[in-house]
Amino acid sequence: MEQFDYVVLGASHAGLEALRAIRAHDSDGSIAVLDREARLPVSPTVLPYVVSGKRRQDRIALRERGWFDDLRVDYRQQAHAAALDSAHSRLRLADGSEIGYGKLLLATGAAPAVPPIAGLSDVRFHVLRTLDDALALREAGRSAGRAVVLGAGLVGMHAAENLARAGARVTIIEMRDQVLPGYFDATAAARIQAAFHDNGVEVLTGRRVASVAPRAGGCTVQLDGGEPCDANLLLVAAGVRPEVSYLAGSGVTVERGVVVDAFMRSTAANVWAAGDVVQTPSFFGDATPAGGILPDAVEQGRTAGMSMAGDPGVRAYPGGVSLNTYGFFGRRALSVGRDAPQQGGADWEVLVRGGEGSDAYLKIVLRDGRLQGVFGVDVLFDPGIMWELILRRVELGARAKALLENPQDAARALMSGLWR
Asked: Which CATH number applies to 2-111+241-309?
């Protein structure tokens, strides 16, 4: 059985950042990176642009093989984890081989969630999580006269736009009462939905799919109200679930994902986890959804890698703060942080610019004078700086109105003072 000081299971953002952090502190330890894909690692966030043709598939790798070689890392592709024996610090792969580790990082990400819809398994449908998925969807979209997209999250909305641009008649079906739930507030979502309507995309919110049945050249999607939607192409974009199938009986606690502490340590000795595979708390200490975004994956990976290597500079992961940028039909929407609760008290304040009939829209959410969230459509601001202002719990006070009027310059001025 081969033995390594460190084994990193997964090679997307979290795994790569952890690898960089490990090697920055430990220049000599042996490291193996096990990637289940046959291709070089890519980010799921770039896949919609592969579908649209805006990005070439040969120019989207997060790292080239030479990068791993330079770090003296044993990088292995098509290495599928089958089982983890944390009691004996070894990992069994799908080919039957075993690898021992001193410290292990679980960064296996997530897989598409397939809802339990009657008949769905009997028809051909697409998902979008890997490069192969993107290439298959792009090819199918070239000849799809009628497309149905199940789910109005970022993946579903991106794909629907690309399919519409390719000439398909597209219907989006979302069971919640707005598009992009969990990403944007209701007003921003309504503006985005209106743009899709104006570009010929039908959007059905607050609707569920009762069943799916095959038909010549495609399938029929039956809605809960009885209406059928025929489709030549069906895309299931109903979210993702953590990839934890190999952890049964491992000693690693899994709830909505792998349970970790503030240093990304799992409940099993010498096992860490980071990225979409983990269940992490919200930065706000409430039920606000956390995780699932690129900046969080990078931060978690850095924290895990530093912790694994014993780097004294490691800091506790502060918790998840959502950050989303979304381009649609030549327009742009941004969201950072959380919205105000419906029954918020006097400590909450909501500032809004852009009412009915205005193209640009911006909402700033404060609690006790500190930024909690920013939501905008066609308003220019740097989401990364807003993210930092939230994480640093910056007291805005009277500067909140300046932030509303000119979010780009006001936020930069605030951060400039903090960085000095």
From this structure: 3.50.50.60
